[in-house]
Design a protein that fits this description.
With 232 residues, the chain is an all-alpha fold. Helix content is 78%, strand content 0%. It contains 10 helices and no strands.
């Protein structure tokens, strides 16, 4: 399970860094994050997975679009999902968490939380923040929505999306499905006036529907991964 968390954390940190930095500062920060991930993984007796995560993150960076555009395709998403699913299936929650695990304070208001579970949850949340936006951009770029139209409409989605995914993730794991339905319905109500002014062709409506559905699916998939990992 910790392996899936490390992979999601590596990809999520990569996307947050390339969203905020460019050039040499980006390279320095990514190198520092890589070293920190290796040290922390070694302390949790999972050093090999830091190298797997670095490889997956490198492929993700090469294949996914950043804010300025780039290549697109769903195979990087499938790669991350496959690695996460396989790692959860193979490892589950380990009994020996290494030196870091022995120092980990497992007690919490929610009960005992092992290091493996904590890393998976943290990795999932970091991944949902910006990597979820990347997945949405892949979906929109693969669709028929023109780039110039997308850039000029519904700009708040870049901020709303991460908040929305974290809420969907948290509400799904806690079983608050009624509140989850209310949150999803509220988004449609808030966006309705802007969508209703859509011109012929339905660009705004298509953008909203594709973006929302992909964003929700991403959050639900990650929530299911965490639920499955803590259940086996």
């Amino acid at each position: 399970m910790i392996a899936a968390g490390i992979v999601l954390l590596a990809v999520g940190c990569l996307d947050l860094t390339r969203r905020s930095l460019t050039g040499a500062p980006r390279a320095v920060v990514l190198a520092a994050l890589g070293v920190a991930l290796l040290i922390a993984s070694a302390g949790a007796d999972a050093a090999v997975w830091s190298f797997v995560a670095a490889g997956v993150a490198a492929l993700w960076a090469l294949a996914t679009p950043d804010r300025r555009g780039g290549r697109a395709g769903f195979w990087p998403v499938a790669l991350v999902l496959a690695v996460a699913v396989v790692s959860v299936a193979l490892l589950g929650i380990r009994e020996d968490h290494g030196p870091l695990g022995r120092m980990w304070p497992s007690a919490s208001p929610l009960g005992a939380v092992s290091l493996d579970v904590a890393v998976l949850v943290i990795g999932a949340l970091v991944f949902l923040l910006e990597s979820g936006n990347v997945i949405v951009r892949i979906a929109l770029r693969d669709g028929d929505v023109p780039v110039e139209e997308r850039a000029a409409t519904l700009k708040g989605g870049r901020l709303i999306g991460p908040i929305e995914r974290v809420l969907v993730f948290a509400l799904t794991l806690t079983g608050a499905f009624t509140l989850l339905a209310a949150v999803l319905a509220a988004k449609g109500i808030v966006r309705f006036p802007e969508i209703s002014r859509d011109e012929e062709g339905g660009i705004r409506a298509e953008y909203f529907l594709i973006g929302s559905l992909v964003s929700w699916t991403t959050a639900l998939a990650v929530a299911f991964l965490v639920w499955w990992g803590t259940s086996i």
